[in-house]
Task: structure prediction
Amino acid sequence: MATIGAHGIVARLPEGFEGRIFVRPSSLGSTYPVAQFATFPLPDDIGDFGSGAVNLMGSEDVFATLFEYGPESLGTALFARQGRPETFSPQDFSPIVLRRGLVGQSGTQWFFTEAGRPFSFYAVLGSHVLRDRLVPRVNMLLASLALSPALAAGTAPAPRWN
Result:
């Protein structure tokens, strides 16, 4: 099991997943961390929420993004939920949640605050019909994440495993 980590986000990648954690250059907009995960090869240049990647998914694939928002989002109604969901159920996924609806796919998005940081977790399943089989893979990924409070540059706290 590979482990990746950067910017206060650590993931112990479940079998079959690859991932990356990065901050886009300020000239491109958001300067907060983005973590992307997939069960298929991630193209180099994709959107934060998977544009340019989800169209490459097979029916058995999963794509997910953990996207951090700025501190101005803390305390807002959208980020009132404390902590990420423990698990998802197949009923949490729907074709109408997708940012870019592709026939047959299904998605979910959850906004929350954890470790004093506002996040969105967005996941896409390659097949809505196969969600009973694919949602446990999303849950394994979700459980693999550890989030630390944001710190000044040059400091590195131990991650909190949930």
Notes: Residues 3-147 form one domain. The radius of gyration is 15 Å.
